[in-house]
Amino acid sequence: RRALSSSLSRLVREFVAQNNTSQIKHVIQILSQEFALSQHPHSRKGGLIGLAACSIALGKDSGLYLKELIEPVLTCFNDADSRLRYYACEALYNIVKVARGSVLPHFNVLFDGLSKLAADPDPNVKSGSELLDRLLKDIVTESNQFDLVGFIPLLRERIYSNNQYARQFIISWILVLESVPDINLLDYLPEILDGLFQILGDNSKEIRKMCEVALGEFLKEIKKNPSSVKFAEMANILVIHCQAADDLIQLTAMCWMREFIQLAGRVMLPYSSGILTAVLPCLSYDDRKKNIKEVANVCNQSLMKLVIPEDDEMDEAKQSMTLLADPTSQESLSKPEAASSGESLSELDIAALTQPLPFPCSSERIQVTLNLDGIVQVLDCHLHDTSIGMMTRIAVLKWLYHLYIKTPRKMFRHTDSLFPILLRTLSDESDEVILKDLEVLAEIASSPAGQTEGHVPSDGSDVRPGPVELHVPARAGQLSSSGTKGLECSPSTPTMNSYFYKFMINLLKRFSSERKLLETRGAFIIRQLCLLLNAENIFHSMADILLREEDLKFASTMVHTLNTILLTSSELFQLRNQLKDLKTPESRNLFCCLYRSWCHNPVTTVSLCFLTQNYKHAYDLIQKFGDLEVTVDFLTEVDKLVQLIECPIFTYLRLQLLDVKNNPYLIKALYGLLMLLPQSSAFQLLSHRLQCVPNPELMQTTDNTKPSAGFKRASASNIDYTELLQHFEKVQNKHLEARHQRAGRAEQLDRRVVL
């Protein structure tokens, strides 16, 4: 065969010298049809050797006959005989070596054939294909005529191969194409990015490393030329792989997402819901996935900063927001967030982001839409998912708060659907989650965007009676002021909107249905609300609602809780001072409102009178206690009140005991409490205190004409204490009837059990 190939070479050279094209084609046709494609294996081997010999003889003219030379050789790549496949590989190597750049128009068929040989089980064939592969890479590297557009569809198809060798072959070619200056593979990255991430999950460490390097090189190019990157086309691909089960895939995709958000900025906003779906669960990862958690946190924070007040100014259902890109602005659409010049992806440097690198951008107008409905749906879904971690729930609540600050008008469209889950979140086990939840609820209750004309809450019980009105202080500045609040701005504001009263009603309903929540977190929740909102409005509205509460036992418990908070919490220092003096009509109105509800609990009513220095009325109330049913719970509350009197909060009351002449009813009221108590530690405590009251004759002063401060204030307050006392009796009669009814039902139940 070798001798004949030499003879064939001489014959072909003669035809070339004679420019006898027809004879050359005839020789190639015979070698192809009668030998290379023959049924006999030896004939096929001879045909392959002959075709290679023809190519060598043709020299630079082989490019004219490449189609006829290559096709039969590629057909033999599929031969069952491994030896014959090796001959085919050798023949094609010789053909390509002679033709060099002329084979590029046939690159796709050559690549397709080589990708099959890369996975060949025979080591000799595989070795031969590697030689041919290197030769073809050299030709592509040194040529500037490579048809990348025609090649991408084939690469996109082959990149999804599951064979390790085929994957290695694909990655090696991607690395080569990336290294060629004249080939801009970055333009076609969206076509192959998904396949690259799938290869990143290969079982072979070598292939994973190669793919990691390739992705790292792409990311470097993206950072260098962000203005030419098709971020939007790759966003959803990253979202998918950010949720991968494989840690390396997830971490790499998350790093890419971090860079995309910082480089593309607001271009990524339309994909916010998908990004949050992928990022939020990662925030609750433990230390085993610490790297992923850290990068996810950066993504979350960067994405949150992209939402700006301007997103609230246009109706997203009608048109998308259009902003002019500004090269100097960090929030421009082409360059909202600057690029990070961190290490390459192969090193997975997620510890920190270095100083931003600005990139030039065009002044073209780019349309960007904030998909608020999608974002809220994702956040709502995560809040409903009881399996998510604490940090994820906190992040969701931070997002809701941020959206209410930046886009209040649009967010209030979703308030009715979000309100129930926000109330349920108050039962969360984490104090941090409850704090963030309260911030969101407080912002909803105080934002001017929630103010509606003639708002009638959905709950029929929300209608308030005329005599007791909720005090709503005015505040300058309307909706526009909400947009100026920062990311970490406190929602504290004395302004209450239409949702405030609804919030108070539903909060009390939740306390009523979840008594454990009231016992364990009730005081904590109310104290935090007093910091976030106006404490006077909170107590005024709750007292107003409790006045109409049908569950009298709950009303008594809730009043006791509110009274304890009022008397002991440092957050309510100003409110206590306001009530202690009753100097203003507002403070007197508040006292009357609180008193009417405090009547649900006799002991708390007395403590309110002590706080407001209404000692005569406190004495009158204690006189009525003789008509009440004295229970263990009642005595326990009296005991607690005695303990409170000894606390710093009632220092002024104890000092007033020195002025016996001007505070006779204070002493009588305390003696009344003493007479109610059994011989207990509280009895001894109060008894010792009263023993310290000085003799009025020893305390006599020369100024006998000075009237009592307490009487002077009371006479000027215009408070109808007789009416308040009647109200107290009326409420206590209701409680007595309710107790009798409960006792009757319990007795009937006992009888049924006996029967």
Automatic annotation (TrEMBL):
Subunit note: Forms pentamers. Component of the PI(3,5)P2 regulatory complex/PAS complex, at least composed of PIKFYVE, FIG4 and VAC14. VAC14 nucleates the assembly of the complex and serves as a scaffold by pentamerizing into a star-shaped structure, which can bind a single copy each of PIKFYVE and FIG4 and coordinates their activities. Interacts with NOS1.
Family classification: Belongs to the VAC14 family.
Domain of life from the UniProt record: Eukaryota
Organism per entry: Dromas ardeola
Keywords: Endoplasmic reticulum, Endosome, Membrane, Microsome, Repeat
UniProt protein name: Protein VAC14 homolog
Role played: Scaffold protein component of the PI(3,5)P2 regulatory complex which regulates both the synthesis and turnover of phosphatidylinositol 3,5-bisphosphate (PtdIns(3,5)P2). Pentamerizes into a star-shaped structure and nucleates the assembly of the complex. The pentamer binds a single copy each of PIKFYVE and FIG4 and coordinates both PIKfyve kinase activity and FIG4 phosphatase activity, being required to maintain normal levels of phosphatidylinositol 3-phosphate (PtdIns(3)P) and phosphatidylinositol 5-phosphate (PtdIns(5)P).
Domain Vacuolar protein 14 C-terminal Fig4-binding: 515-693
Subcellular location, record wording: Endosome membrane; Microsome membrane
